[in-house]
Request: fold
Amino acid sequence: MIYKQQNVGNTKYALGRNDLGYWLLKIADRKPSAYFLGLSFSHYYFNEIQNQPLIKDGVLKVEGSLVQIVKVPRHDDYSAIADGKMFKVNLRELMKDTDQDGYNDIFEKCFGLNPDDKDSDGDGVNDFTDINPMYRSEKNKFTELYEMLLPTYAGAPDFKKDPYHFEVFKTNCDYFHQINPEEYKVLFIPENEDKQSYYVRFTDVCDFGISKIRKNKEFPERFYINKWDSRSSTDYAAEYRNGKWELEMIGGIVI
Reply:
């Protein structure tokens, strides 16, 4: 979603939002870039119509409201706490990218990447191009199981080429951490709140989830796993036979 655009000399700015949050978009010398604001959409609502210039005197200025999220059936709604606010962000601080990897420091701190190292997981791939920048990908039968259960988007754009599109999962599972997805980039949030950043602790950025793998004590080759999204939850039994996983749906609910 794009809120407002503004030209400052030969540089074009715009205010946008994706599933992670709010961004300042910039095109200079035909080179696009984006800077994460770190302002949670759980607390900040930006007006779709901005009456004032976005950029002035080295400051990003955004009109909006302080809000709280209200849970209603099938979606979230906003309840205003204070309307008519002007939120200001210093451009120099916003655009600071200490490790020069393409993600501003605010983004990396919000989502658990290392703002001082352009290769957060040490796998030799820059965070900006790494499909899984938080953890080294490994290939084994359990990472394959998680990759099978990842959400897919038939007919969607090639998210893999979009460095600002991520699917975010909350998990402490090492096997899940080691996946190498085919369709999009991934980030992970610790299950323990004391290890989460302030931003993800109070901002719902997870649309999907996959549980830890559970063993069957009586049948060691049989495992159980659950995946969920905002409208459904599905339970699977899984067995690894002849070099591939066989899944059986054994239960679930639809909201």
